[in-house]
Amino acid sequence: MPRKATTELKTPPPQLLGAPHEGRARAVIDAVLPHVDAGMFPVKCISGEAFEVTAHVFTDGHDAVRAVVRWHAEGGDAEEVEMQPRGNDEWTASFTPPRPGRYHYTVVAWVDRFLSWQHEMARRKGEDDIRLAMQIGADLLDEAAARAEGEDRDHLAEGARQWRWHATDTAVDAAAIQALALNDAMAARALRHPDRRLATHWPRPLPLVADRLLARFSSWYELFPRSASEEMGQHGRIKDVVARLPYIAEMGFDVLYLPPIHPIGRERRKGRNNAEQAEPGDVGSPWAIGASEGGHKAVHPELGTAADLSELIGRAAEYGIEVALDIAFQCAPDHPYVNEHRNWFRWRPDGSVQYAENPPKKYQDIYPFDFETSDWPALWQELRSVLDFWIALGVRVFRVDNPHTKPFAFWEWAITQVKAQHPDVILLSEAFTRPKVMHRLAKLGFSQSYTYFTWRQTGQELRAYFEELAHGPGRHYFRPNVWPNTPDIFHAQFHHQGRPVFALRLVLAALLCPSYGIYGPTYELMENRPRGPGSEEYLDSEKYQIRHWGPLSVDRPDSLAGLIARLNRLRRAHIALQSLDRLHFHESDNPQLLVWSRQAREGEDTLVMVLNLDPQYTQSGWVTLDLERLGLHADVPYDLADALSDQRFTWQGARNFVILDPASSPAHVFVLQRTGAAVGTPPAPPEQSLLEP
């Protein structure tokens, strides 16, 4: 029996399964670059510098596409920048975030009817075809006029009228009609008002964090305030650090980093050389934070007061130096938190708290927080308030101790919260841990990160590692900060060694990476005694006792301070040394010679470094430069000024001979002299050698 027709046949057909929301949108955006994990985490850039966006954009057939980058500060109005094609369906545009903060960007693309028509018009041959196409163009001008306002609206409407008249006036030949249709001024007006109703939008706005330049380019100097006194055996104070500022400034550092300045626990205090039992008068480790005088929001009474810190920050700013504080979220057994918030710690059946360990190292004087506590929201808020406390005193740079031992979710929340209110804050991640963990911390918001530089020794190791840092997938979010030494890391390469090894590792750090640091005065005074064979601990480490370093000066004969000052002047004088973008390694027939170049984005500022990796013996060999990358011609001589020795050389071609004696200088640091250029650093005072007093 036949079925009766139903009213369902009268309803609109259902949406096609799997069809897009707007099937007439023909522009394809195949990729938007850069991004970090498809937009899960922000890309990083520097405010005031152009940020380049690339997109892969195309359409079916032969119609013309256009694309724009749409960007805005978080909470602000959107702006657009027209993208330009650079071949192979790749489009690019740049915008400049004006200030530190969080931004978003995306790409919008569409098939442009007017531009497609204009391309077709340029290929028309027959008179009838040209006249018909002109009438179509007039319709497109009318449509553009309807979208325009003011002067553009009037000009477009008048243009449409004239185009129709020319299309039908037989007295006007086809060539004149075609020339009128391709008029640049009228095209520019029409293209300012495109029909974007069928535009394709990249589905997810991509996050971007803009930092100030210090986040990418910085020179750090670490010192223990308690060792800053000029009097032997006297506990140093923050006021003594103020007296050190001229010396630190003369060496050219822009960040002065202080280990924790809080009260130090007395319970289970460590003695000299990490002895488990302290002797009377032992001062303990600054990382064992908290005592009866206070915790993370207090200054150790023997160092001074919060007002003294504020004075140091202000005086340092007069020298162009920022003060960085250490943030170590851990407690000494007698920290006030231990009694006031017992549920923030993991208690064992015998009534004790498990102390921190990093086998084989044991830290009996440190209690870690229990981030799995049911009271975790209060713990998070309190730790965030520690950052707020020091920010309120004027601190804008922090070195964060062992962030990989705290939950990643905490750091993502805390850093986002802090930078939303204080976008100029910079946080350095001290995380000597597995690569993926280091990269995750960088993605979560840390401005800079420690690296494996200390353990990269051979030319092959250094080259592979820095090529990864400069050009690998992490380059959009991972900013390296390289340190030859730290209070915790005293590599065997320095054990019982002299000036040459300290000099060559200093040159590597300062000239391979935009950000570097040294732990001084141990470094410039070339402290070389380990606690034991193969140990990465210093003998008589400042972590457990006060040291006296005597008068410090860049002219001190047993110091590298003069070389440090010259390198830091060089870094400030050359934009090429302030970014990793154009780091490139060149070839040598001697594996002990490491050759690399650094260039500014515009290619005008170029330096070539040749370094002897052997601190004991003279090394020589032929270096082969990539002339095309350096913008040089094989048949034209070029001049090189050595910024370390003030010598000048004239080379020609790719292959040239180099000899380096580590007893006199670890490297040539050549500034490429182009027409009209001058050496970027002032000459050094006369001296026998960079490495000899």
Descriptive notes:
The protein has 15 helices and 27 strands. The chain folds into 4 domains: 28-111 and 200-210, Immunoglobulin-like (Sandwich); 114-191, Methane Monooxygenase Hydroxylase, Chain G, domain 1, CATH 1.20.58; 215-573, TIM Barrel (Alpha-Beta Barrel); 578-673, Immunoglobulin-like (Sandwich), CATH 2.60.40.1180. The chain has 693 residues and is an alpha+beta fold. Helix 2 packs antiparallel against helix 3 (150-168). It has an 8-stranded antiparallel beta sheet with strand order 25-24-27-22-21-20-23-26. Helices cover 27% and strands 21% of the residues. The protein is globular. Strand 14 (356-358) and strand 15 form a beta hairpin.
**Radius of gyration computed on alpha carbons:** 32 Å
In spatial order, strands of the major sheet run: 25-24-27-22-21-20-23-26
Count of spatially separate domains: 4
CATH hierarchy: architecture of the largest domain: Alpha-Beta Barrel
